[in-house]
């Protein structure tokens, strides 16, 4: 039995090995260490399936939890106590026995335009026709194709450094990447334009960190509340409820935007076909305390506008392995 007077425990944090994952995990550790100097926080790294198959087209695998599964198994086996995830990589339905204990303050959740230096000074609106735009995300692809059909879109894989090297080598004219990832890796100066929500709605949970642990570890769950950011949590819970109700993973063309003002949450969402031809979007708003109900309401509205047919066509294509 644990009691208030028991000696402080060692808490094992699980992380992927990627540079971004480690930056995020050590940031979480630092925040917790400030609040709980008497506790020993250890970082344990693990490779996930997603880390091992980065060269293949992840978007076409359609599997959820590519970057989280091994960490979740580690928690259930008591090898680690909690895991730090990019929230957008964490599926909306967690395995039995695990819980999303805290969501930390989000960085700018928007997508960024990163240009080859020969295009310096341009924006997405005035890049020349035929420009080769690199993205691995169906969500970015669908929205940009819809608005900028005159660009050429090309898949890109690998970690951030690999992608930047391909851009600098001239394989692409521009890349679309998350502002948050670039900022965390000290590459914020490579952001040429933060894409406005009229151009690209970001991924669910983008820019926030999700901390997952065993659902029965009450002591740890209370500790983790120390680094929760309530406004980010409300926004992300609305976004995740929307995604869960549409049964979409992080690999489908679903985008969102959220804002909170005076306790009022506004959630916008978009569902698009990969070719950018079909697109439905809407906005709901209400008390932030009802975050998840707002996500459900938006999912219902978009379904009435044909979102399910768009998604079913994409799932069928993934199933065919095309
Ligand atoms: N899909 C990969 C991924 N997962 C998390 C981030 C970093 C941004 C974030 O924390 O949301 C990225 C890179 C990107 O989308 O450019």
TrEMBL record:
Q: Which residues form the Porphobilinogen deaminase N-terminal domain?
A: 11-220
S-(dipyrrolylmethanemethyl)cysteine sites (modified residues): 250
Origin organism is Richelia sinica FACHB-800
Q: Which reaction does it catalyse?
A: 4 porphobilinogen + H2O = hydroxymethylbilane + 4 NH4(+)
Q: Which family does it belong to?
A: Belongs to the HMBS family.
Organism domain of life: Bacteria
Q: What's any GO biological process attached to this entry?
A: protoporphyrinogen IX biosynthetic process
InterPro entries in alphabetical order: HemC, Porphobilin_deaminase_cofac_BS, Porphobilin_deaminase_N, Porphobilinogen_deaminase_C, Porphobilinogen_deaminase_C_sf
Q: In which pathway does it act?
A: Porphyrin-containing compound metabolism; protoporphyrin-IX biosynthesis; coproporphyrinogen-III from 5-aminolevulinate: step 2/4; Porphyrin-containing compound metabolism; chlorophyll biosynthesis
Remaining remarks: The porphobilinogen subunits are added to the dipyrromethane group.
Record-annotated Porphobilinogen deaminase C-terminal domain positions? 235-303
The EC code for this enzyme is 2.5.1.61
Q: What class of enzyme is it?
A: transferase
Sorted keywords for this record are:
Porphyrin biosynthesis, Transferase
Q: What does this protein do?
A: Tetrapolymerization of the monopyrrole PBG into the hydroxymethylbilane pre-uroporphyrinogen in several discrete steps.
Q: What is this protein called?
A: Porphobilinogen deaminase
Cofactors that this protein relies on: dipyrromethane
Give Gene Ontology CC terms: cytoplasm
What the record notes about the co-factor is: Binds 1 dipyrromethane group covalently.
Q: How does it assemble?
A: Monomer.
User: What would be an example GO MF term here?
Assistant: hydroxymethylbilane synthase activity
């Amino acid at each position: 039995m644990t009691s208030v007077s028991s000696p402080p425990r060692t808490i094992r944090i699980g992380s992927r090995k990627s540079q971004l994952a480690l930056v995020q995990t050590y940031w979480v550790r630092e925040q917790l260490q400030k609040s709980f100097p008497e506790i020993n926080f250890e970082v344990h790294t693990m490779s996930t399936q997603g880390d091992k198959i980065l060269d293949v087209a992840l978007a076409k695998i359609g599997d959820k939890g590519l970057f989280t599964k091994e960490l979740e198994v580690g928690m259930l086996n008591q090898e680690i106590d909690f895991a730090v995830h990019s929230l957008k990589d964490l599926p909306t339905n967690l395995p039995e026995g695990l819980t999303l204990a805290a969501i930390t303050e989000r960085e700018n959740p928007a997508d960024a335009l990163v240009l080859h230096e020969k295009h310096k000074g341009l924006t997405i609106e005035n890049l020349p026709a035929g420009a080769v735009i690199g993205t691995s995300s169906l969500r970015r692809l669908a929205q940009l194709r819809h608005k900028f059909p005159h660009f050429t879109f090309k898949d890109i894989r690998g970690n951030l450094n690999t992608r930047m090297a391909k851009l600098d080598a001239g394989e692409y004219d521009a890349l679309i990447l998350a502002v948050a990832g670039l900022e965390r890796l000290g590459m914020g100066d490579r952001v040429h334009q933060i894409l406005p929500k009229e151009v690209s709605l970001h991924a669910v949970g983008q820019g926030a960190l999700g901390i997952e642990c065993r659902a029965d570890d009450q002591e740890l769950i209370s500790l983790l509340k120390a680094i929760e950011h309530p406004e980010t949590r409300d926004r992300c819970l609305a976004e995740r409820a929307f995604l869960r109700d549409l049964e979409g993973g992080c690999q489908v063309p679903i985008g969102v935007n959220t804002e909170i003002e005076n306790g009022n949450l506004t959630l916008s969402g978009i569902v698009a076909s990969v070719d950018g031809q079909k697109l439905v979007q809407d906005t709901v708003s209400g008390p932030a305390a009802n975050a998840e109900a707002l996500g459900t309401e938006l999912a219902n509205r978009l379904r009435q506008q044909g979102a399910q047919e768009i998604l079913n066509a994409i799932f069928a294509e993934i199933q065919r392995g095309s």
